[in-house]
Specification:
single chain; Rossmann fold
């Protein structure tokens, strides 16, 4: 734990220096995903200054949507990911993420993940901060929500299902599920994934009634 504490203090010190003069200023009150149908049902995108969730079982498409959010974040500024879940940089790059504008912080436990997100938000250097939907006390989610609001940043928590505490403090919740998978016409083992459709359902939205749904098209880059 001492080593982790030392690493986080070094991260905080570095961000405090780098953020000087580069405080995030939102140009809009929402963060668009770049996925037209999803942005439509979200009335433009995920609201900045809030906590949002991407939910659904493994291989439901939530990582693909998270990648598009990180891509949008790195187009206009800096983005960050904190947590113990593995993310694959080449896949992020194919989704349009500028890797030189993305900070990845490894945090193995829920409390370390929360601490990393806390530091990232307090730096005010990142427009989008992503993390796994780890179980945390209500007081922790309340603090993170307040920091996101103060920074004008979007904090995205991705996981199978939001806990009661996270669901309360999240302003927007979207549940994902694979609706259809398409393959190339090549025979047998030569078949390759062409793309897939994600069914996105809005469970909660502070600016609109829940219940909206959309089909999001994700194309697989040819090898």
């Amino acid at each position: 734990m001492a080593a982790a504490a030392s690493a986080f203090e070094a991260l905080k010190a570095g961000l405090d220096v780098r953020a000087a003069g580069r405080i995030v200023t939102a140009q809009a009150d929402f963060c668009a995903t770049g996925l037209a149908e999803l942005d439509r049902i979200l009335d433009g995108g995920f609201p900045r200054g809030t906590v949002a969730t991407l939910e659904g079982p493994p291989s439901c498409g939530r990582t693909a949507i998270l990648a598009t959010l990180l891509a949008q974040g790195t187009r206009s500024g800096l983005a960050a990911f904190a947590g113990g879940e593995s993310i694959y940089p080449p896949d992020l790059q194919r989704a349009g993420v500028a890797l030189d504008r993305l900070l990845i912080v490894r945090a193995e436990t829920p409390i370390l993940t929360a601490r990393a997100a806390d530091i990232l938000l307090r730096s005010r250097a990142f427009g989008v901060v992503a993390m796994p939907a780890v179980p945390l006390r209500a007081a922790v989610w309340s603090r993170l929500a307040a920091l996101a609001h103060k920074a004008g940043a979007l904090l995205v928590a991705a996981g199978a299902q939001a806990t009661t505490e996270l669901a309360y403090f999240a302003s927007t919740r979207v549940r994902c599920g694979i609706e259809r998978v398409s393959w190339t016409d090549m025979p047998g083992c030569f078949r390759e994934l062409r793309g897939y459709e994600i069914a996105a359902h809005v469970l909660k939205h502070r600016r609109a009634s829940p219940g909206r749904c959309a089909t999001v098209q994700i194309a697989q880059e040819a090898s």
